[in-house]
Write a structure and sequence with these properties.
5-stranded mixed beta sheet; about 375 residues; 7 helices; single chain; alpha+beta
Length: about 375
């Protein structure tokens, strides 16, 4: 195959054209859900390779210091969590202008690539990315609002995928209304009420909410024929979990507004639960614990959603989502990316762009943003 070529389907002929400096972008990839119905593809149970923490100054720490321990209210005790407490005076949001790309994950990889299971050759065939980027791919066939851009570069065989903020997402972030900023705080505040810093400890909601701090799990999996190495932020571990092995001991914490009608629940199952499922399923997190908040910002009830049972809520809803469609589309995108990015060159970026209602398209860039692999 030509160094800059792309694999072509039967019947497509490469036109004789002058060799330019940049490879020719591939065709586009359709995203309609109906195209990806069918059996669920192979997905290897994710296994944790390691972890790292980001501290209060957002510095990388190659250990589990930021891991917190799940400590829900005692049985029968009603939660009474004031999610507005401490806002804004005890809130330290991280700097969203800082473009981190894959940097923290790459640092972990540099420190551990010698000891990866599967040997040094395994990484050369793998795709490396953040779990959040894969979540966006999984939900694409059902997403009606927000587009995305993923930059891809190949280096020493490995395909790296890193999200690029779309102009629309940036504009939205910079004009975020105060209510939305407070809602973001409330999600983090809920974690503070539900987690302790030590096993057997008690939650301390009197401290500040600092969103620089994060505990990240690094996992290995495989989707179809694509070996994956990815990292995702984990809220907490459950010391009482039936299986102490990560990721089976991890718990995802979420907040949502209280619901009062079947129509509200239906909308919740169709939209929010899809994102919760995608996020938790990819990482192998067995359940999501949701705190339902009233209009005054107090959590009045908790509900546990086991990840493997989320689909049951929409199985008979003709406007619902299907896990097979999500995973088949993700596998198709990974094949599309692998076949499009054939040149091994960290200064060369293929930018995959998608807007709701359209196909995924590709543009090619060299030596300028969106180049994301550090020298």
């Amino acid at each position: 195959m030509e160094p800059g070529g792309t694999k072509r389907g039967a019947g497509e002929v490469a036109a004789a054209e002058p060799r330019s400096k940049l490879p020719r972008p591939a065709p586009s990839l359709p995203t309609a859900a109906a195209l990806y119905a069918g059996p669920f593809p192979f997905y290897r149970r994710p296994s944790q390779l390691g972890c790292f923490s980001l501290d209060a100054q957002r510095r990388y720490r190659g250990d589990a210091r930021a891991l917190r321990y799940y400590r829900p209210p005692a049985n029968g005790q009603r939660p009474d969590f004031d999610l507005r407490d401490g806002y804004p005076e005890r809130y330290r949001p991280r700097d969203e202008e800082a473009r981190e790309g894959l940097d923290h994950l790459l640092r972990w990889l540099l420190e551990h690539r010698g000891g990866l299971e599967g040997g040094p050759g395994w990484l050369a065939g793998a795709i490396v990315t953040w779990r959040g980027h894969l979540t966006k791919l999984l939900t694409t066939p059902y997403e009606r609002q927000e587009g995305w851009q993923l930059a891809a570069s190949r280096f020493q065989g490995t395909l790296y995928l890193s999200e690029v903020e779309t102009p629309a997402a940036r504009a939205q972030r910079l004009s975020r209304p105060p209510l939305l900023r407070e809602l973001m705080y409330m999600g983090y505040k809920f974690e503070q009420y539900m987690c302790a810093d030590k096993p057997g400890g008690s939650p301390d909601p009197s401290g500040e909410v600092n969103t620089n701090v994060a505990f990240c799990s690094v996992l290995r999996s495989r989707l179809g024929s694509h070996p994956l190495l990815f990292s995702g932020e984990v809220d907490c571990t459950d010391p009482q979990a039936p299986s102490p092995e990560p990721p089976a001991c991890y718990v995802e914490l979420k907040t949502s507004k209280e619901m009062h009608s079947p129509a509200q629940w239906r909308s919740f199952y169709r939209h929010k639960l899809l994102k919760w499922w995608a996020q938790s399923f990819l990482l192998g997190v067995p359940s999501v614990v949701a705190g339902f908040r009233n209009p005054e910002g107090f959590v009045c009830s908790l509900k546990t959603f086991p990840t493997m049972q989320m689909f049951e809520h929409v199985r008979n809803d003709r406007d619902g989502w299907n896990p097979s469609v999500c995973m088949n589309f993700c596998a198709a995108f990974l094949s599309f990316a692998q076949n499009t990015v054939v040149q091994d060159d960290p200064r060369l970026v293929h930018l995959f762009s998608w807007e709701p209602g359209g196909p995924v398209t590709v543009s090619v860039h060299r030596d300028a943003p969106p180049v994301f692999l550090p020298t």
